[in-house]
């Protein structure tokens, strides 16, 4: 029986053969595909973000091509995030990861068995270029937490924009460990780079995203998680044989939140959430905003806070004029006429009929009044007293 190594070797050989065959078959059609992909116009149904314009949300959806996004961690969340951005027609993607594709990663929505053994960034680039050849890619197969790699990482987010030498527009953290998150946090605080942190819990049914603007919102170090507060080695939290955050549905939900807010930030529509959580067990989506901690351990964060305060102080102050409500003066009411309800509150509530059981925070727009007693209540006239004929005779006698 063949070993796993032999099977992986054979898979790689088959992959090379298939790749060669694809190049032969597509050599004539590659230029046509690229041309179609670049013609993202109103008349072209291939336009990826056309819905945003048709629904009046943005004026120029094609501006997405002018932006560069760095995705750090191309695992369960990061690979799906990179694919969504590629399908949206992002201008350039920088992909960072040090891991390789394994057969255990096949619970992801992105990788395929024949890619086992390749670095994740290499496998991702090959797949994404097939999806949209117009997107530019830079891939880096290294660990950003080492000193040399961290320096290079900082250099690329400050100079790796669509035009070389410009900042990237946004950094997306899709890593699965605290050390890497702190490295991204330190880099972005150092250069004032806006970024979005994301994560899926080890129980695989909850996750979150957090939007970070250095100096303006809390950075990742401002509110340290349990592993820092208790000085716990995060390696001891890993359980053998368990792939943390390995449910593809949860990873796809978090990736969707991440890309949706990326589009809102880049194309400037809607409100970018500061923090959005997701708990699949209760379908609970908590949101909140966190101000930076003045006692943050990251010195660059405190520097960014000071610079942000200076920028805010330098802005011209907007004077808000107080508007006094006009006092409503009623006309004289010599006869002291008042409009009052003929029913009490209890009687009114009782007459509204049965109320539906609604979740907390919901209310009905209107109520249907309960029918009056007797089926003919609204269809009969009072019959007591003189008849119409008697009244007519009395009038004639006058």
Description:
It is a single chain. It contains twelve helices and seven strands. It has 398 residues and is α/β, with parallel strands linked by helices. It has a domain at 57-314: NAD(P)-binding Rossmann-like Domain (Rossmann fold). It is elongated and about 120 Å long. The N and C termini lie far apart (122 Å).
SSE inventory with pairings:
Layout: H1 4-26, H2 30-38, H3 50-54, E1 68-72, H4 76-88, E2 92-96, H5 120-131, E3 136-140, H6 147-159, E4 170-173, H7 178-191, E5 195-200, E6 206-212, H8 226-229, H9 248-267, E7 275-279, H10 299-314, H11 345-351, H12 388-397
Parallel strand pairs: 1-2, 1-4, 2-3, 4-5
Antiparallel strand pairs: 5-6, 6-7
Helix pairs in contact: 4-9, 6-7
Sheet-strand content, in percent, reads 5-15%
Question: How many distinct helices?
Answer: 12
Q: How are helices and strands ordered from N to C?
A: HHHEHEHEHEHEEHHEHHH
CATH level 1 name of the domain at 57-314:
Alpha Beta
CATH superfamily of the domain at 57-314: NAD(P)-binding Rossmann-like Domain
Tell how many strands the DSSP assignment holds: 7
- Work out the helicity level: 25-40%
Task: Give the tags.
398 residues; alpha/beta; Rossmann fold; 7-stranded mixed sheet; 12 helices; 7 strands; 37% helix; elongated
Q: Care to give the gist of this entry?
A:
The protein has 398 residues and is α/β, with parallel strands linked by helices. It has helices spanning 4-26, 30-38, 50-54, 76-88, 120-131, 147-159, 178-191, 226-229, 248-267, 299-314, 345-351, 388-397, and strands spanning 68-72, 92-96, 136-140, 170-173, 195-200, 206-212, 275-279. The protein has a seven-stranded mixed β-sheet, sandwiched between helices.
């Amino acid at each position: 029986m063949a070993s796993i190594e032999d099977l992986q070797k054979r898979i790689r050989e088959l992959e090379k053969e298939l790749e060669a065959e694809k190049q032969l078959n597509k050599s004539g059609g590659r230029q046509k595909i690229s041309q179609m992909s670049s013609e993202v116009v109103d008349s072209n149904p291939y336009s990826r973000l056309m819905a945003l314009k048709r629904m009046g949300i943005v004026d120029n959806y094609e501006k997405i091509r002018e932006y560069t996004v760095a995705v750090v961690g191309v695992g369960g969340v990061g690979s799906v995030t990179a694919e969504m951005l590629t399908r949206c027609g992002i201008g350039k993607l920088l992909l960072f990861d040090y891991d390789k594709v394994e057969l255990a990663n096949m619970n992801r929505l992105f990788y395929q068995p024949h890619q086992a053994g390749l670095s994740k960034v290499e496998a991702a680039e090959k797949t994404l270029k097939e999806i949209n050849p117009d997107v530019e890619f830079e891939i880096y197969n290294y660990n950003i937490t080492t000193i040399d790699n961290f320096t290079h990482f900082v250099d690329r987010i400050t100079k790796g924009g669509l035009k070389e030498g410009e900042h990237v527009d946004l950094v997306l953290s899709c890593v699965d460990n605290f050390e890497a998150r702190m490295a991204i946090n330190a880099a972005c605080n150092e250069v004032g780079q806006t970024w979005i942190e994301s994560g899926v819990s080890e129980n695989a049914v909850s996750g979150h995203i957090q939007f970070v603007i250095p100096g303006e919102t809390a950075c990742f170090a401002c509110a340290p998680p349990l592993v820092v507060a208790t000085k716990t080695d995060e390696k001891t939290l890993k359980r053998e044989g368990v792939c943390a955050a390995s449910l593809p549905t949860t990873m796809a939900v978090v990736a969707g939140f991440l890309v949706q807010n990326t589009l809102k930030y880049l194309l400037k529509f809607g409100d970018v959430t500061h923090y959005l959580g997701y708990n699949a067990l209760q379908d609970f989506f908590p949101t909140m905003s966190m101000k930076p901690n003045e006692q943050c351990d990251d010195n660059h964060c405190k520097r960014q806070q000071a610079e942000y305060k200076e920028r805010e102080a330098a802005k011209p102050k907007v004077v808000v004029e107080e508007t006094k409500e006009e006092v409503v003066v009623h006309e004289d009411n010599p006869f002291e006429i008042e409009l009052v309800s003929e029913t009490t509150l209890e009687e009114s509530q009782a007459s509204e009929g049965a109320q539906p059981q609604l979740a907390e925070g919901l209310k009905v727009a209107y109520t249907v009044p309960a029918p009056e007693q007797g089926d003919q209540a609204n269809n009969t006239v009072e019959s007591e007293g003189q008849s119409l004929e008697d009244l007519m005779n009395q009038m004639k006698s006058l």
